[in-house]
Design goal:
Elements (H helix, E strand, L loop, with lengths): L3 E6 L6 H6 L3 E3 L2 E4 L2 E4 L9 H9 L4 E4 L3 H13 L3 E6 L7 H15 L5 E5 L4 H16 L4 H11 L3 E6 L3 H6 L5 H10 L1 E7 L5 E8 L1 H15 L7 E6 L3 H15 L3 E6 L2 H7 L4 E6 L4
Parallel strand pairs: 1-2, 1-6, 6-7, 11-12
Antiparallel strand pairs: 3-4, 3-5, 8-9, 8-13, 9-10, 11-13
Helix pairs in contact: 3-4, 5-6, 9-10
Length: 290
């Protein structure tokens, strides 16, 4: 059986230890503070992740840049040169053009490496939701599943991958065009916290609002209690925008109430964090439906 490599992008927000343990290849996206440009490596070697959020809290604006096909080619070419096939699992296409860039790179590389197989899948997922799907795929590969088996599993299960988010700063949603200025102003004054999720089409959608941070955290738990499948057999991922205490509080609630197999917590990286702001909290698990 020909070897294959699982490739993803840095928006999956996977911890470095998982990337290393499963020999994953991560194509980094980039972000900028005015004239300062940074590459979003998973280990945040160019700018510490806490420093990124400190700058966001102080009011600095971070912008993100679409990863181009050339960058994909730079990361995929050595893998193909080594005789590997490739399974790329990418960031939700409605949220980014990253997946589109991977398709352009695949077209170019397939002409040169005619014996290689390059599969690109739009996960319709984001942050550690994308990461959780990759984690399961990597485990299957480690167990000896071939590329077709892993691909089929992903296509059958990615719409069972539930994403639930809350954000602390409504002004970031306003800047992203998801709420208007008046809603942001009134909501901030009243302590309103939106509850959002990623739908079957890979779009970020606002579902409801609650009053106060503690209620918003419990709202994420309630969504999991309602829809999760066999929690004692499944891994749960939680990502946070520099609010570790809240992430740990949510993780402990889940362990206590649902007896899940494991909870993995990591930062929301700077690419997604540029759009959520500091204080965002996200929960990912497998459920009956998104």
């Amino acid at each position: 059986m020909k070897n294959y490599v699982i490739v993803t992008d840095s928006t999956a927000d996977l911890p470095v230890n998982i990337i290393e343990e499963y020999n994953l290849t991560v194509v980094p996206l980039s972000y900028s503070f005015e004239n300062e440009n940074y590459i979003n490596y998973p280990d945040h070697r160019q700018l510490a992740i806490k420093e990124f959020y400190e700058r966001i809290k102080k009011g600095e604006r971070s912008t993100t840049t679409l990863v181009n096909a050339k960058t994909f080619e730079e990361y995929l070419t050595p893998l193909l040169e080594a005789g590997n096939d490739i399974l790329y699992l990418g960031f939700s296409s409605p949220l980014s053009g990253t997946y589109g860039s991977s398709l352009i790179a695949r077209e170019e590389l397939s002409e040169k490496y005619t014996d290689a197989r390059i599969e690109c899948i739009d996960t319709l997922a984001a942050s550690m939701g994308e990461g959780l799907l990759i984690y399961y795929a990597a485990k299957m590969k480690q167990e000896g599943k071939n590329l077709d088996e892993v691909k089929q599993w992903i296509l059958e299960n990615n719409l069972h991958l539930c994403h639930w988010f809350t954000v602390d700063d409504l002004n970031h949603l306003k800047r992203g065009g998801r709420i208007n200025a008046m809603t942001a102003t009134i909501g901030t004054a009243l302590g309103v916290k939106p509850i959002l999720h990623v739908d079957n089409g890979g779009h970020l959608v606002s579902v409801t609002n609650v009053r106060g941070r503690k209620k918003s955290i419990h709202a994420l738990l309630e969504q999991m209690e309602t829809t999760c499948i066999n929690p004692e057999e499944n891994s749960v991922f939680i990502s946070h925008a520099d609010c570790l205490e809240d992430a740990e509080y949510l993780g402990n609630l889940i362990k206590e109430k649902l007896n899940v197999k494991e909870v993995v917590i990591n930062f929301i990286g700077p690419v997604i964090g540029s759009h959520t702001g500091q204080g965002a909290l996200a929960l990912f698990f497998f459920g009956k439906e998104r």
